[in-house]
Specification:
single chain, 307 residues, alpha/beta, two-stranded antiparallel sheet, 4-stranded parallel β-sheet, 11% strand, elongated
């Protein structure tokens, strides 16, 4: 695969998902200081590396003679080309978000659920809550006992989160950290000293999310949707990602498309990457996507498929 430009650079885990190795992907840079994108340059890489797809990955406009050449390749050598935006949506199922804020076309068709979609979502919520309670009640009893044993204090943890239409709500989870710790950080770190052993187990298997069933019944959350983010972090992200609140067109969920596709985030760039998955989920929501998330979540919980 040849990528013309470096507007977006595929991450290591994304290359793995695509089955692309280091040897069969090549970036050709563009820009005023390094204008490497020429027909001759493209030709040399096609012959040398035997590519069958070319991705347009530039902020600047593509010259008409290059477009004409790429179009001819579809007939002469069975080589296709597409934009990075199209590539990300069709191959990695995420919406590209530009780093510059001068083009908001990517927000087209990203809107709240219709009345019919919302009805379907609530049916899924109640159906999911019933079976979640049916299967998880032993885990709830064990978790309550282990939390009290390993870390004295409240069993449940309540925190102000941002929900649908930017409204605050109190999110309920099992407490996985010691109370009144001196060490403070917005993000959870590897081997975080604040997390007690059973808390770590709950986090890995996502059992700490079970009490959010209460939030679902109250209509503050869905079973599936964007992650319910802490209000303080949302304020931080909004400064760096002005359109971050687009994810709040819908209610958050216990699990979601970003949660099952992207590793745990610890900075603004991770938040931007996860937002790409959230926007894809909102834009292309359907029952099959919902079922796919349920399946991927189940695989993560039993430890067979993690991101």
């Amino acid at each position: 695969m040849i990528i013309l430009g470096v507007k977006y650079k595929l991450q290591k885990f994304e290359k793995s998902k695509l089955g692309i190795s280091k040897n069969n992907i090549h970036y050709i840079k563009d820009g005023l200081k390094d204008p490497d994108i020429t027909i001759e340059n493209i030709k040399s890489h096609i012959h040398r590396l035997k590519h069958n797809i070319i991705v347009l990955n530039m902020d600047s406009k593509v010259h008409s003679h290059i477009i004409a050449y790429l179009t001819s390749l579809q007939f002469e050598r069975d080589i296709s080309f597409c934009t990075m935006e199209h590539f990300l949506e069709t191959r990695l199922h995420k919406c590209y978000i530009p780093t510059q804020n001068d083009n908001l076309d990517f927000l087209y068709n990203i809107r709240a659920y219709s009345k019919w979609q919302y009805f379907q979502k609530r049916c899924i919520d109640y159906f999911g809550v019933f079976w979640l309670l049916f299967f998880s009640w032993p885990v709830m009893i064990i978790s309550t006992f282990m939390i009290k044993r390993q870390s004295p204090g409240k069993v449940l943890f309540r925190q102000l989160r941002i929900g649908k239409y930017n409204k605050n709500f109190e999110c309920i989870k099992y407490r996985s950290m010691h109370e009144n710790t001196k060490f403070f950080n917005h993000y959870t770190q590897e081997n975080d000293p604040r997390i007690f052993p059973w808390g770590n187990t709950m986090r890995k298997m996502r059992m700490d999310e079970i009490p959010q069933i209460i939030n679902i019944i109250k209509g503050e959350m869905h079973l599936i949707g964007p992650r319910a983010e802490w209000s303080e972090l949302v304020q931080k992200y909004k400064k760096d990602i002005p359109y971050y609140c687009q994810r709040h067109l819908v209610a958050p969920g216990i699990t979601g498309w970003a949660q099952v596709n992207y590793p745990y985030g610890a900075n603004v760039e991770d938040a931007r990457q996860k937002l790409m998955y959230d926007l894809y989920y909102i834009k292309y929501w359907n029952i099959w996507l919902e079922l796919k998330i349920v399946w991927k979540t189940a695989m993560i919980v039993i430890g067979k498929n993690g991101v």
